[in-house]
Amino acid sequence: MALSDSVTTCLSPPVHYVICKLGFEKKDTYDINNILSENGEVCWQAVTEHVCYLESDQSVDYIKSIRSLGPVCESINLHFKSLTKEQFVIQYALWFRWTNYTELFLEVFDVLQYTQTTEVALGLMKLTSCLERALGDVYLLIGKDCPFLLRDLLASEQLAVVFGQAVMNVLKVFIGSPYGLNLRNVLWHGFASPQEIPVKYCAMLLFLTAGLGQLLQTYLLQTKCILVHRPYVIFVSLEELDVFPGKYLTISKYLNHETLSIAEELVKLSSFVLKTMLPFWMAALTAFKQSRYADCVILLLPQLEVGLRLLFTTTNQCPNRLLTAEVKFMSKVSYDLMLAKCLDNEEVNQLPAVLEEPAMASEFLWDFLNHQEGPRIRDRLSHGEINLETFPREVANQIVAFAITLLCRFSDEDMFAFKEHMVIKPLMNCASCYRSRFHPISRLKKQVLECMKSIHIWPELPTVPKEHIQTIKGLEGNAEASTLILMISEIISQLQQYMPQNCCSSDDPINSVLTERLLIELCDTCICTLYSPRPVLEILVVLRKISTQCHQVSEQVIASTELRYKQWMNKTLRSRQRHNYLRMLNSIKFLSPVLRFILVLITLELVNVHLVCRKNPFDYQQYLKFLKSVLQYTENLVTYTSPEKNKWDETMELTNKALIKIRKISDRKLMLMQLAT
pTM, whole model, 2 decimals? Predict the structure, then answer.
């Protein structure tokens, strides 16, 4: 891994030339008064005239445009340096309000005065993410469904209507187009080191943002529209992100000054860190110490990508990709490819093998960055979806701790003392046994357990006192309910051999098997979530829908029971409503074991189908058809048990038909489970 010492740049020669040299070739100087009017407005004509176009199709000629705009950027940079903070605030602060984050742009101005390269790069990353979010808000003045990618957003007709196409072309020279400077992607993907980003480009984007604010104000006055800012994404259930150092330990005990000091030493010695990127690592740890948690994570995420890219390109013998940020490769050397099972040439990706414990990196990264139900930290930060001022320490804790484990994992053998240190070892132990929390398999397990907890509330629900119940025709016998319970018992007896034996009892299969304890044990079954086969993912979609419907039925039963009991005691129910209420109480006696049975069934399906798909490919479409019929039953159950319908007799009939179908195909189900064992 000596490559980490020898690499001097991650920009290919053509990209390095475009970013670091092209904009400095023209030595012209521009009077700032030609670019900025006396009343402080941006003279867009003086800027847009530097954008050049190809004769062939009149598209932007990015090379000529960057060369021509270089001196303009320098003039603006010098202008900003000549201003005091007070002068800048008076002249420009008003024009940043449209971004909904004026403070950030004032902060970037401060950074420009000191020209610390790491801080400039950080400021540019934050500026571009905030600008993208604000442009998305403007897009929604006219359009719907804001484009996810910045390049698509800048190419939209909606923004051209508001700002003008010539202005949008200026922006595309700096961000959004892979053919231009592409500053946002080069930084967020970790290709550029701190010293490779010219300060004047940061100053130019600050200037352009103010100019966009002026154009937007004119548009809003003309159209009488009101700009509405989308709410920020808020991380919920932060406890689910609590990975390090473990369930019974507090992370603050381990990410203390001593741990961070060790981390700083590891950064200098670990082969995971490119030496040209070392300032980013040190700045990230400093930001954490200063409680600037968003800054810390923004700095770390691209560096984790760089380190993994170094491993990826080395183990897969494609070193050229470490040094590439060109158009045809930019989107292909990021986390998506590095975490994939196979390369784009269909060869097996060797990175997981090098990591030795895929859960240590691959599953953690998939959870925190990629899975749709996970926090998707990098996406949300880079697209401006998160309020940086309130970024939670809990998230930063996990990213910093994970980074430390990678630094240790890819350190020399003589670093053994660091790895065994009392504050480092618990982090390493947690990383080695990490299980995915946001893969659909993990989410289904969580859904099933939550639904079972809901059903367990039923026995505690208030019911009508016995002395209030009068004999009502149709409620005297429970023969139909007994038949349903008998069918469930028969099916359970066939499935019992595939269940944990310590959770089963032949004496009372309903109450001994259909328990929360059994579900917990089944859900504790270790299932590999990395690279789940397509059939598993398709089946998971149906299983999760079934679980969702069961939970909705349970919540409806709870709500209806509580409401009707209150109405009964207050004597506000009409005769027909009283009759229906008693039918409901009669029906939920059998509905509880039915729902518990379905939860056990789909959890067994999860475990066994996953094993079958891994071992023996099979025609899963017919099997999927069966699951969809169960889903149809639960959907109908939701309808019948809703407050609007209250069809409790129909619920029993529906359940009877569904259980008959399940029992008929139970032999086929057993065959499937035998394949898994």
Answer: 0.89
